[in-house]
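To: structure desk
From: M.T.
Subject: fold request, one chain
Message: Could you run this one when you get a chance? Sequence is below, nothing fancy, just the single chain.
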Amino acid sequence: MEIGLVELSRLQFAMTAMYHFLFVPLTLGLSILVAIMETVYVMTNRPIWRQMTKFWGTLFGINFVLGVATGITMEFQFGMNWSYYSHYVGDIFGAPLAIEGLMAFFMEATFVGLFFFGWDKLSKVQHMVVAWLVAIGSNFSALWILIANGWMQNPVGAEFNPDTMRMEMTSFFDVVFNEVAQAKFVHTVSAGYVTAAVFVLGVSALYLIQNRHKDLARRSIAVASSFGLAAALSVVVLGDESGYSASHTQKMKLAAIEAMWETEPAPAPFTLFGLPDKEARETHYAVHIPWAMGLIGTRSLTKEIPGINDLVAEAEDRIRHGVIAYDALMTIRENRGNIPAEAWFIFEQNSDNLGFAYLLKRYVDDPRDATEEQIAMAAEDTIPGVGPLFWAFRLMVALGFSFIGVMAFFFYRASFCNMRFPRWSLYAAVAIIPTPWIAAELGWFVAEFGRQPWTVDGVLPTALSASHLSVADLLITLAGFVIFYTILFVIEVSLMVKYIRKGPFQDVAETEAWQDQHEARLRGAGRDAAAPATSAE
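Reply: Done. Structure tokens follow.
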């Protein structure tokens, strides 16, 4: 199979996935923020909170619709561009995707309709429950997607069946509670919460700069900053958990992120800055933080984190054992009626390394014919792009810590300074609106690019997973996807800008009714009935 074909297939899927993920984080976070705002409305009965719920809910709805439009096409790509992948691991990978479609997505879509069209048909409490069901559905949908993706990173609960020549599920429990999937889920949804918090913070700051909708803006900042601070802290903590998980499930990815060529004495340092050089197998001008990587990656001061060179040597050994497994598998296939017991025993002893033998198919049709040089080349392929991973990870981490600082500042000003915000801070809040999307895309790049050359880590190489399409087919569909998704993105931004400029809809009748009730309560408390009513909070 031509490498160009595989790379075009990867580029197409990467493009559609990253376009789709422009919409997902905001959906995850805004659904929770809208539900919180409606809960406050039900508790206080103040019209301003209903106004906030409707306004931010409208922006959520725009984002939700376009997220669905971009997400549906992605699942079709597994059959179009990655047909052998779908055949080889479809029994495992397809299950969480099916559950996501049948349970989470349908629940989410159903209650989204009730949320937008049920304001005058449901009671306040019923509508609040609908808002929370929308939020739960959105996050539940992400859970099943990330269970599927987590299995690709750490394929547990499955084994290879020589009779069908496919991977088959052995434990649904292990797939669902895969440590990588659970860590990815909480880390990803927390990043979505930060994205929504920064978005709400930035739009609200824009209103304060323009001296518009100040009541809504101040309260939105108060909610977004408190929610965003908790989420930003969670992202850092849960990112640390992902690093710990990678130390024993994806050692090469962790070593590449650190540009750690040699195994460092325990506890390993964290490389704050450096210039990775793959040719020289070293990182120039490295600045280290002692012990930090050892504590993150192993939770101890005595365990080593293996370097890239040692992991390549380990990969060579696994490739050789994989060839033994492949040879035994071919013997089993050729003697179906009378399988030699020795072949079964050899295969079972080496089956965990079968995927490494498939790495050789890039260089030779039959892995058993591979030379030592080809084995060394296949082992070298297990090193992902060190430079891009090194810098993408550090930029992502820097942005993550900056969100903590921003949210802490606005939380302090909202809680202890009577919601007074310096003008420079409002301009800064507007300026950083795009940054959580950058951080989220970098996170996915690190997760997916760092897994190469595997589609399913240690099981199925990417070079074997792609469909047998022509380069022309891929170029045409890639161009079509780019044009279509770009149009959708322009529509999304245009609609968002339109409704942000328009501002929230104010229900005058409800506001006046609340003011009348508020004045009546003041009179009932023996206060001066002539005193002016407070603004509609």
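Reply (cont.): Confidence is low (pLDDT under 50) at residues 529-537. Let me know if you need anything else for the meeting.
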